[in-house]
Amino acid sequence: MKILVCIDDTDNIDSRGTGTLAEMIAGAIEEHNWGKCSWITRHQLLIDPAIPYTSHNSSMCFAADIESGCLQQIIDYAAEFLVRESQVEADPGLCITVVDDLFDKQSLIDFGYKAKREVVTKADAYSLARKLNIHLSEHGGNGQGIIGALAGAGLRLSYNDGRFKGRLKIDAPDNIISVKDLCSHPAVDEVRSLEGACLEAGEFVLLENMVKPILIEGKSVILVQQLNEANVRALWKTCSKNQLSAYEEMRTFVADK
């Protein structure tokens, strides 16, 4: 059974981030032999004065392949964990979606993109969760985090939203690596330009400080831009954090169309 686990609004500006708590839940699932978890993605939602959030209004989601009999154990564990580990002033929410049981995946995806563009309510989130038989629960504060938790699950389900948590550490002479060798990393499927072109295996990339995959068409993709300065080997370099953010905003606009 494949599930999506998404949490939101667990932290404050000085505490461990929501991504760290998502890692801990994923680790517990594997330690208890309930299932095997995949990488965690960060999903940026709308920044608006009407929305309370700690710093960036983003949720964290991961997929897991589990034994069907373990679903309730995972729900119970994650709920208790959020109560115990979230900050007192936070408004944590938990969403656990059984992917194969979703009869209307597009409605969940649409909700995710809507939460990137406009203000949505807890009532909206609960209404959709009931309709799709999705577990959605609040575990402190005003429970506002359920909105981001449900939205994050929808965005992950789209296979076209989210940056992977953390940065890749890749050793390469002079920080230059071939596309072939970069794609040999277990967390990298493809290398693409910002314009969408897939780079050839024999091309070379200069690794800047930000080597972070992004979820595109269900693949873990490293985005690169052309080097303006002359380099005898590399014609490309990895994108900055600001460029990745701008790329995500652009994809939200395209999805809206």
UniProtKB/TrEMBL annotation:
Keyword DNA-binding belongs to the record: yes
UniProt keyword list: DNA-binding
Domain of life: Bacteria
GO molecular function, one term: DNA binding
Name of the protein in its database record: Predicted DNA-binding protein containing a Zn-ribbon domain
